Structure prediction request, 491 residues.
Amino acid sequence: MKTNTISTKTNHPKNHNHRRPCTLRPSTVFLWASFVIIFFTALVEIQLLQTRPTSSPSSQPFLPPSWDLLKKLQNLKAAFAAATATCSAADDKLRRAVTFLPLKDLRYAKSAQEGHTWFMSSLHDTHEQGEVAYQQFPSEASNGRLLCIKGRDVHDGAWNSYALAWPETLPYNATLMQGLTFISNNHYNYDNIWHGLSSLVPFVAWHIKNGCSVGPARWVLFHWGELRAQMGLWVKTLMEATFTGPLNIERFDFVGGGDEAVCFEKAVVMRHNEGGMSRQRRMEVFDLIRCKAREHCNASSAEGGVGGGIGMTLFMRTGARSFRNESAVVGIFEKECRKVKGCRLMVAHSNNLTVCEQVKLMSSTDILVSPHGAQLTNLFLMDRNSSVMEFYPEGWLKHAGVGQFIYHWMAEWSGMNYQGAWRDPDVNLCPYPGDNRRCMNIYKSGQIGYNETSFSVWARYVLNDANQRKLDEGKEKSRDRSEYAGGCACS
Prediction:
């Protein structure tokens, strides 16, 4: 499906949406200006000749002015035709000289995650202090050229290619797509809510940087240079809320095979996820998405204020990284919640909730208790200064790598209080020695046990901390909530 798209075939002479390049060039303007000057000079000469005395010296035969003017016009016509032919020949060479390179540069296949250099590898990103790294076309960095893409292969990004072309000399058989196009590339997938959000957050940052003035006409999604036609419902819904309208994911169904290319009137490319963004910009991004999501889902912020209650949510999983004894864990937190006046305990499973139900649940949550997993991505939908408690299966600290800390980072980026993590004690069930990577395959999908004493003490501390925050910062937090009633700010 395409929306807000005007296609222009560069070899279609009757389409007036694509201007002929020669009419835009300085050389052409100069020729037309010369024509006007000579023409009016000739007219002045005619007037002067018509006023000459009738008695002329016989040694200076009088030539009819019309012949003199005709000769000048013929010479000008010949010069103009030659210049036009030269311009057309130059245009033809520029169109044919557009060189397409593979989106996936196999020279960097083994180091693809070291700066993402393999995707559109010949081009450099724009880096601005505190902003996400991005590419924009046309721009000063591209010397005013547009981005063109050829191919829609979904299995091998090396079969899809890109090139830059001047707006006046797009390659033959190219389709010009008008409006703003967001082009994303990632190493994971757009169905997982964490990976999908990480890929699309940079576009929200760019949107804020540019005053939220224009939303995208379409999105083009790549995974390792391979075209993708959809994203997960959770991510899609939040992006539709943020950009206030249906999400048009371009599939290029209208493009045939062979040498047909698509060029974009304006394009923004992201290939580094949130790389380069300052903490302040990240918080602004999450503030905007949170606010827009609540507007979209008609969700109010958490109840409370000075002396208000505490909303504690146990956000559970099934299968991998779930609690072995969920009812026992619920009982522990329920017991501690009853000790705090106004505490409300909510137990939910993310796979049983719609997107808006998750938004509303997080809007009424002050303390989020959850195992490590994609469902924790919802944490930024809570009010700022809310608390997060995370749980891991055994073996993760030693074998999982830096990826296990993503929700700790996300809590900090979105203004939440990360209250630490509980890790199931490692009983060394892995039969492989040392830091063998095969151990992670054993621990990755493990379940999580519990320790009643540890959970009780931890829950008591976090509840008391949250309650004290509400007592001390109630007025300020109420003021923060009021911003959602007055619309979502964007600067």
Remarks:
- The first strand starts at residue 101 and ends at 102.
- The mean pLDDT is 82.
